[in-house]
Amino acid sequence: MNYLEKDQLSSLDEDDPVVEEVDVYLSKQLSENLLLLQYPVRPCRFPYDEVPHIASRAKPKQLQLEVELAVNTRSSNYASSKGEQIALNVDGAEPDESSVYSSNKMDKQVLHSEASGVATGRYVLGTLKDNELHMTPLRGVLQMRPSFEYLDKADLRLQKGAVGDEDSQDEDDAKPVMVKFERQETKEAKARRLASYDFMKKKEKEECWVNLNYHQPHTGLAESERCLLYATLSNDTSEFYMSPDDYLKQLIPEEKAAEEKKPDMPNNVLSMSDLKTMPLAEQVRALLISAKVIHFSQLMSLLPKGTDVTTVLRNVQQVALLVQGCWVVKSEVLYPKDSFSAHSGIPAETLCRGRDYIMWRFLHNRYLVRKDIASVIRLPAEDVKDILEQMARFRVHKGWEFVMSFDQEFISRHVEVAQRQQMLWDRKFQQLAQILNVTKADLKLAANATSSVITSPRCRRTTSRSRSKSGGEMSMSDQSDADMDVQKSDKRRHYSGPERRHHSSGSDLKKLHLGAGGDEGDNVENGMDVDRMLSPASDINGTTIDLGALKLELVKVAADRLASRHVLSTSDFKRLFLLKLAECPPGHILGCGVSDKQLEESLLLAGAQKLNFGPNTDSVYILNKVGDGWDEVRAVLIGMLKEKPQVRLSSFRKKVDEAGIDVLSDNDLRKLLKEYCVPKGALWMLKCTLQQEDS
Question: Where is this region: Disordered (predicted)?
């Protein structure tokens, strides 16, 4: 910049001196009611100030205003014939109190307000007084335009006149009224309805007009209202008491970086660009949540180069646990507090407990069998499979194998971390043993697994082989194969408990024939081993189980489910039993192990009758006695359902009449049919059989 340009800039500053300083005040006395009225169709040289005002009204909430102005009917520019014709069309030949025009001519016009569509939050009305600028914020800007509603009234009157007098006097015929029940509205549908034009019009019509009084600008009341535009120093100037820095920020706000909308990513994909912007602790947490299981060397390769290993170790121990030399994300990180399973709705605390037990089992075993795990943690099959898929992969004839290879390199380099993790696992197992009621075999396994994390799988296999040769425990691989053999040989399913082995106390086995209300011969196949069901106690894997109490609990569960449903298939009762089991507290007797046969026997003991409709279908258990006075009719219905799982109402009525039972009406029979059947056309189908056909 040369000297000439500097002289020009200095001269420009001198040409723009500060002439005068004016104090600025903010008044809020009229801010809630101050409106700016615009007249876009009226020339500015013809204001409405001198035009007589007949009436004014407003809708404060909808911010609407109407003003009635008189029309000069004596003006040379007024067409009297047109004015009389308009009044005749609107009010008719005989005006009354409800007429729009008081005379026989169109003697007034209505100005109706419309929103200007401009955001008025940045507009104020300013006035100067004693070298002070007083500003009042505007509530709104309204444009006043002529209203032509009188034309609509004239058209409506003409349409009514076209209808004959006879038709108008006839009474309307009675018509049936259709009653419809409105469905529950979603949040999205409600938002669209509230933003619709019809809803806005409805809100406008619901608000009533409020009559206003018009005062000329030169009246005393108008002068007193204008005085409210001036601020009072006691109340309205607090906004301007701020520091110069704050005032400058208000004038020139800081620029905020616009947040770019990022594309949606799959749940199992982590953006590396976003990862680089996170702190180190958040990076480790995000990587563990995404990978679930990871080697420490892989974790270091994903972090920025030069990252301190000690810092990473400190952070990774906050969100993960060491299993077979690999880091597995903690259960409480995956399942936060107050969350629930997406499959079964089980709370996060139960999921964390089951996942920690699976991790502890992988701490000592390379392979796991899902059935053994489910019998201890008492979780539905979907949740158990979901947890296993996070840290293992399925191998045919072996079970679930831990997904990562044993990381001996990390164990050798960081012995102190591995020992600290082993101590942590010991404390965690003591908690799991109390809550999950882990058997003594698991406790023995934990006691014999000395320093299992620090030693490699090869060393453990060698030690296990030497122990098996000397009569000790079998090796890990042999143990896994043996577990698979046991699972294949035991054909009975067990729910939420260890495998059960029952030894009968004698050769004399009693058969209990519990009926479903039929002949004794019909229930021979439903006989049950009384010695096994009513035995006071049984020793299972070193744990004493009270079989009598277990039987009573099972019968109670079966009775509750039958009372609410009346009809249950075998698969339905298994599912309901698992849901009941998930609600039971730790150590409940139902978690000791229940077989399919015990579940079926509990249904029979609860008073159900077993129906079979084919070798490829589930057995159906139906409640035959309720005790409400209709058991005789139920017996007739059940007899028909035993022959065929479908009934016609007419056939049911005929059977009831043949049995000599007095029934009030067909509605009573329909109510009884609804307890056991589902209508399908002209037939009533047994509930569980209809579900099997649909599936």
Answer: 454-528
Q: Are residues 466 and 529 in the same domain?
A: no
Residue 432: exposure state from Cβ atoms within 10 A (0-12, 13-18, ≥19): buried
Q: Are residue 377 and residue 521 in the same domain, yes or no?
A: no
User: pTM of the full predicted structure?
Assistant: 0.35
pLDDT for 96 beyond 50: yes
Number of other CB atoms surrounding residue 142 within 10 Å = 20
How many Å separate Cα 204 from the centre of its chain?
A: 35
Between CA 72 and CA 70 the distance in angstroms is: 7
Report the distance separating Cα 296 and Cα 421, nearest Å: 14
Please indicate, yes or no, whether residues 483 and 534 belong to a single structural domain of this protein.
Answer: no
pLDDT digits (tens, 9 = 90+) for 524-583: 333 333 333 333 344 444 445 567 778 888 888 888 888 888 888 888 888 888 878 777
Domain shared by 334 and 464, yes or no: yes
| Whether 71 contacts 109, CB under 8 Å | yes
Clarify whether residues 642 and 521 are in a common domain. yes
DSSP secondary structure, 567-626, as one string: EEEHHHHHHHHHHHHHHSPTT-GGGG-EEHHHHHHHHHHTTEEEE---TTS--EEEE---
* Same-domain pairing of 291 and 216: no
How many domains are contained in the chain? Answer: 3
Contact partners, residue 531, CB within 8 Å, separation at least 6:
504, 505, 506, 509, 510
Q: Are 399 and 393 spatial neighbours (Cβ–Cβ below 8 Å)? A: no
Residue 12 to residue 20: CA distance in whole angstroms? 18
Domain region containing 577: 511-694
